[in-house]
Write a structure and sequence with these properties.
- A hairpin with a 2-residue loop joins strand 7 and strand 8.
- Helix 1 packs across helix 6, helix 7 packs across helix 9 and helix 15 runs antiparallel to helix 16.
- Helices cover 54% and strands 12% of the residues.
- By secondary structure, the protein is of the alpha+beta class.
- It folds into 3 domains: 181 residues, no CATH class; 101 residues, no CATH class; 38 residues.
- It is built from 19 helices and 9 strands.
- The strands form 2 sheets. It has a 7-stranded mixed beta sheet. The protein has a two-stranded antiparallel ribbon with strand order 2-3.
Length: 381
């Protein structure tokens, strides 16, 4: 668990806080503190008195304050940045990293929200690096403020951001645990790919066990396995297809890993794996829901051929042609009722034989409804 506390007698000069008893960091990041600005030099970097986070049994000090936007450097290793940039994150200069982040519509929308709110109000997380700060959490907010300053160069509302400021002694593992508590187990959760990568890193890089992950992230062991398998499969796909937009196909792999039959085939059959990659690359599959129906497609030779040649919609038409219950609620009910009637239990049959009035009425109503439908359709049964 991660808990935050202020030293006894500490009175903040920039933020006033509500009382929070031993809360985890996800509460800190989601309005557990009532952040009310008070008078302060807008370029003052931090409060004098430190606060502490209990991370993995250690009291890690930090201070709260504001940091100048022009002194903040983006962190290309942040999971949110990796999600946005896909495989292009390595070796990128700050200006190029800024450009790639700003390309995203979600970041432009964030900038508009910051503009409407009159600045950033939730603290970012930064780490000192000489006389500058590395943004460990809050990179999109940093880029948004940079571009707002280009539009409004003299607007002090966008020149600084509130921050939790750590010194260089914040270890990478501690940061990983902190971010996991905020954005995997917490209330402001990352997208599924970002969560999966972070879980994978905690397991592979920092040696966190399944028991640790399940306890700290409040996820089941099966969910942890699903996320890590989907992340590994997505990484393999991105290695061959590195366009940043392909990161969004993580949802396809996550759906694949949810179905035991497909998961097993992907694991055991290299040809199936390459085939699935090709279907994604050629846009033959474009929605996670389509992945769920792949077993049915692969079980129908004509539909399978249509999938390869034209894509899932063409395959789905063949499946529906052969089984209308896939598309029609009425015929789904007809199919379900037919199967139930074929497997009628002996007790219901005995009730009918004994003249159970209500069951006889329901059976006769069904018979009449089917007969009426056939008459309306002009078909003979």
């Amino acid at each position: 668990m991660i808990a935050a506390r202020k030293p006894d007698g500490c009175v903040g000069r920039f933020w006033q806080y509500s009382s929070v008893p031993n809360s985890t960091i996800d509460r800190i990041s989601t309005n557990a503190y009532s952040m009310v600005p008070t008078a302060l030099n807008p370029f003052e970097e931090a409060l004098e008195m430190p606060e502490y986070l209990m991370i993995q049994g250690k009291n890690v000090p930090y201070t709260r304050g504001v940091v100048p936007v022009d002194k903040c450097d983006l962190d290309a290793l942040n999971p949110r940045i990796q999600y946005l940039l896909g495989q292009r994150r390595s070796g990128l200069a700050q200006n190029r990293l800024d450009e790639l982040i700003w390309e995203k519509d979600a970041v432009k929308a964030l900038a508009e929200s910051i503009k409407q709110n009159g600045g950033v109000y939730e603290s970012i997380i930064v780490q000192r690096s000489g006389d500058r700060f590395t943004v460990r959490e809050g990179n999109c907010r940093t880029v948004s403020c940079r571009h707002l300053l280009e539009q409004f160069p003299n607007d002090t509302r966008f020149m600084t951001m509130p921050a939790m400021i750590f010194d260089v002694d914040l270890a990478e593992e501690d940061l990983a645990v902190l971010l996991a508590d905020m954005h995997v187990a917490g209330k402001i959760r990352w997208d599924a790919y970002e969560q999966a990568k972070h879980v994978h890193d905690l397991f592979t890089t920092y040696g966190k066990t399944y028991d640790w992950l399940a306890s700290h992230l409040r996820l089941s062991r099966s969910k942890i396995a699903e996320l890590m398998l989907a992340y590994k499969a997505t990484s393999d796909y991105l290695a061959a297809h590195p366009a940043p937009s392909n990161v969004k196909k993580f949802s396809m792999f996550q759906e694949l890993m949810k179905k035991k039959e497909l998961r097993q085939r992907y694991s055991d059959d290299m040809q199936f794996r390459q085939r699935f990659f090709r279907l994604l690359a050629d846009d033959r599959i474009t929605d996670p829901k389509q992945v769920r129906d792949l077993p049915a497609v692969f079980g129908n030779a004509e539909a399978e051929k249509a999938l390869e040649a034209e894509g899932f919609p063409a395959a789905a038409k063949i499946l529906v042609r052969d089984d209308p219950s896939l598309e029609s609620n009425l015929f789904w009910a007809v199919k379900s009722a037919t199967e139930a009637l074929k497997a009628a239990p002996a007790s219901d049959i005995q009730d009918l034989k004994g003249g159970n009035p209500q069951k006889l009425i329901m059976l006769r109503n069904l018979y009449r409804a089917i007969d009426d439908l056939a008459t309306l359709a002009g078909v003979k049964l």
